[in-house]
Amino acid sequence: MDVVLEVTDQFMFDYMYAWLLPARPALYDFPDKTNGTAQAFSSWVYEPATKFFSLEPSQAAYQSIWTRDNIYRQSLSLFLILWLFGLVTYYVFASLSYIFVFDKKTMEHPKFLKNQVWLEIKQTNAALPVMALFTFPFLVAELRGYSLLYDTSDEGPGRWYDYFQFPLFIMFTDFGIYWIHRGLHHPLVYKHLHKPHHKWIMPTPYASHAFHPIDGFAQSIPYHVFPFIFPLQKMAYVGLFVFINFWTIMIHDGEYYANNPVINGAACHSVHHFAFNYNYGQFTTLWDRLGGSYREPDGDLFKKEKKMSTTTWKKQVNEMEKIVKEVEGEDDRLYEPTETKKSK
């Protein structure tokens, strides 16, 4: 994350900290003790975060008492990046998915909640800053050299690993998320942490980040632990961070493109939302198959005329209501009246 921090420092944070916490100018301009136009003195020396590019710092980088290598500044900056840039990414790409991919007919489903889109956004707005608060210590530790992040192939295991790190990351994080997600469905945990995300029986792309904050953070732990166990190239790290957010939106968009036995796509995840106890995996179906929790999506879900049919919806509703009664007891969700849905 040092690459991202360098870019944001260059164009935003240097100016922010120089304004909020300005450094006091020296009493004189060393070595000329008679000069009365002295500038603030900083011992910080710029070193590019990567060999692939560099950004020569502006004067603002030297004008704060919190220099770029200050741990308090790094902590605050990374928290803001996780929170605010995460929020921007969420709004931009969830909105694009909602406008161009999500089938609005889904909103006529009997289990689509009253004001659901607004509720999903509200839940996300509340969750993201708390998730960022739990997450930034991992990034600070990476920044200060405690991880196995590397820059060029020469610094890593070799050129072969530059390619191998991607499937390794997917398999490791998929394994970790599977067990964390499955654990969140334990009766002692579910109602307190994971139930807010299962409020959305028929999710929209805005449900992608609409978690209880501890739930959202818990499922992200494998991503943040990975570079402390395995080497990971810096640019790949940033790319995977973006990919994870895109993927999370995609599996909630309700558009079932591929009936693939390996990929845990939107269709598999939709089964998880209305049937609860299946398809806990994030990227693949492997761990669900090995753990006995895999359920293949019905073939009708890949046929638009049947996917949105009353017959399919009734089947989903009957199964969902039975599961909710077993898992939650009384269903406290507030659904939109059928008459209102039909009039839209």
Radius of gyration: 24 Å
Cα distance spanning the termini: 45 Å
List unreliable stretches of 5+ residues: none
Strand order within the widest sheet? 1-2
Total helix count? Answer: 12
Give the helix/strand class. mainly alpha
Output mean pLDDT.
Answer: 92
The biggest beta sheet reads: 2 strands, parallel
Q: Give the overall form.
A: elongated
Q: Which range best describes the helical content: under 10%, 10-25%, 25-40%, 40-55%, 55-70% or over 70%?
A: 40-55%
Strand composition percent: under 5%
Element-by-element helix/strand order: HHHEHHHEHHHHHH
**How many strand units?**
2
Describe the structure.
It is built from twelve helices and two strands. The chain starts with a helix and ends with a helix. The chain is elongated, with a radius of gyration of 24 Å. The protein is 55% helix and 1% strand. It is mostly helical and 344 residues long.
Q: Helix and strand layout, with pairings?
A:
Elements lengths: L1 H19 L50 H30 L15 H28 L5 E2 L8 H26 L2 H8 L18 H17 L2 E2 H17 L15 H10 L10 H6 L12 H4 L2 H18 L10 H6 L1
Parallel strand pairs: 1-2
Helix pairs in contact: 1-2, 2-3, 2-7, 3-6, 4-6
Give the tags:
344 residues; mainly alpha; two-stranded parallel ribbon; 1% strand
Brief digest:
This protein is mostly helical.
